[in-house]
Fold each of these.
Amino acid sequence: MGAYLVFVDESGFMLTGTVYRTWAPRGQTPKVRSWYRHDRVSVISGLSVSPRRHRMGLYYQLHERNLRHPAVCGFLRQLLRHLRGPLVVVWDNGPIHKGDSIREFRAKHPRLHLEHFPGYAPELNPDEGVWEQAKKALANGRPRSAEELASHVLEKLENLRRSSGHLRACIHNSDLPAFL
């Protein structure tokens, strides 16, 4: 039996929002209003590929604060609960992916294998495509609060989770060698 492959990454969404190019009548520059508050939602996600049929999955957790080791361990615990058999997690070399608590967690779960991408290579991580799609879908929006922002983020991530085509596009649009 093969192992599940899970690409993991984190991202933040802010009330100030992301602005993308949009359409407007000629001569009328569009105005995008935003808040000047720094409320944010931090998200960790994992894009999984099943060992046999190469089915795609998306797992995620939202947090009100910046992610720390306990949140990362909690996310890894969630992955272990949902995915049976060996699990290979591939992520960047970020500080929250290292440290004593991560090593201790790994030692307690022998079916979990942690691998790192080379330094400064976000183009290799297919989970970056999840953030690109989610942020593009949320662009030019103006949520009124962190709670409303979290609700919008959850909605967009759920839509992505249900679309195997969009998830597969994250893999194909990364700079990983073709394996699906």
Note: The beta strands are 4-14, 40-49, 56-63, 87-91, 112-116.
Amino acid sequence: MGHWLDVNGEAIYGTKPWTETRQWSPGELPKVEYNKEFMTPYDVAKLSEAPSGGKAAIDAFFTAKGSAVYAVLPRWPGREFFVKGLDAKRVRAVALLGGPAALHFRAGKGGVSVQLPDLPATLLAQPAWVLKISQ
């Protein structure tokens, strides 16, 4: 985890929540019930696994610092990732922390589509990946 934080720590340390704290895949969202003292179990690790059985899963967690938005991806999405809720006109650059310098991106309906690189097996075996979106 220490090595992961060496590479991706800027997405964690000194950040605040972005407008959205997470992005869900299509599917049925889990029901979380609140009472005065606690909420029902909410296992983030299980909610971050690949979606199955019509259930939604967390595709990304978001933090922000200055003019940057960080998308923390709990599983590698493949060749493309769509970030909902971004104003494409404001995006100046997108980078994969610890990866190639700049990634190609384009405006999409309601967000930005980011083209991701093919990663070697050594980089696919980590707990999460971080996209830095500079605005």
Note: The helical segments are 2-8, 44-47, 121-124.
Amino acid sequence: MMLIRARQPEDLDGCVAVLRRVYATTGYPSGWPRDPARWLSPADQVAAWVAEDDGLLAGHIALVQGVRTECLLRAAGRDASELGGIARLFVDPAAMRRGLARALLAAAVGHARARGLQPVLDVVDDDEAAIALYEASGWKLAGITTATWVTPAGIAPTLRCYVASPAPDISLADPS
């Protein structure tokens, strides 16, 4: 059974343990953070969620406000304060392919839209699994840019910038 819920302070140790397994398997994030719990809670974070799979912590996502990536600002046509950035999305390798990443993504996007924020994200150009998830979820490629950070090898990776598709209009037609 899958459960998506708001992250609580007591979840951080479990999130770090899952992140360590993800890093060992996939190399995400590009470099192991000095303080992983702090990395999971960026200063501009407005909310974070965890996924549970059969009662075990199995994934994480955060939403930040104030994205300043130029290609996302241009594509969204909005001020940085109006952008809700999807961040720190990962799923335990043992729980992949069960819809957890998609459910976490939906929670963050819904929260961003409820706050009046345009959901945006960037992803390293060689992360084929993440790119496939975003594109299958309707995200639109907004551009390609070079990261402002470097990997432990000193390389600034290429990033793909995505903007969420507009929310579907669910208004009902007048039956008359």
Note: The beta strands are 2-6, 45-53, 56-65, 83-91, 118-124, 140-146, 158-163.
Amino acid sequence: MTARDLATAMQRAQGVLRRRPEMGLHEDAPAAVRWSADTRMVVRHPSGLQFETDMPAELGGSGDRVTPGWMMRAGLAACTATVVAMKAAAQGIVLASLEVDVGSRSDTRGLLGMEDADGRPVDAGSRDVTMHVRLAAPGVEAERLRALVDESCRCSPVLRVLSDGADVDVRVDAIEGERAVA
């Protein structure tokens, strides 16, 4: 798909959503995970795509798969890059390159449910999240590209949920005994 094709598809979608804004709200494809063994999980998408995650060896995993935390960073990077590409196409900007790297720091004590020296629970969440966007477009000024990234960050669903927070409704079906969950 060319940048022009992408821009045309987005214009069509915007036209439909202006006429019928209720069509914009929809259920997202669910992410399903099944425990495999130890700290290894099988992640499944409704399309049939599946892959495994695991923890590093020092936390009881094999260390040979990506971690759930890495998937969060990868999702943020991919989502933001996708929005930048979409916004660039909509503005007639032809990208020559686009790369997004996301890093963070975490305190493993939080994952393990430990307390700090003052007896307070250590936060399990990632902190100091950094995102580095590198992009180039022939004939486009750096300031315009920075503005493109700023606008894209305001429209990135994953960045928004991570920075603004989201209410998470946790429901638990606890099954007594050793009956397997289908």
Note: The chain has five helices and five strands.
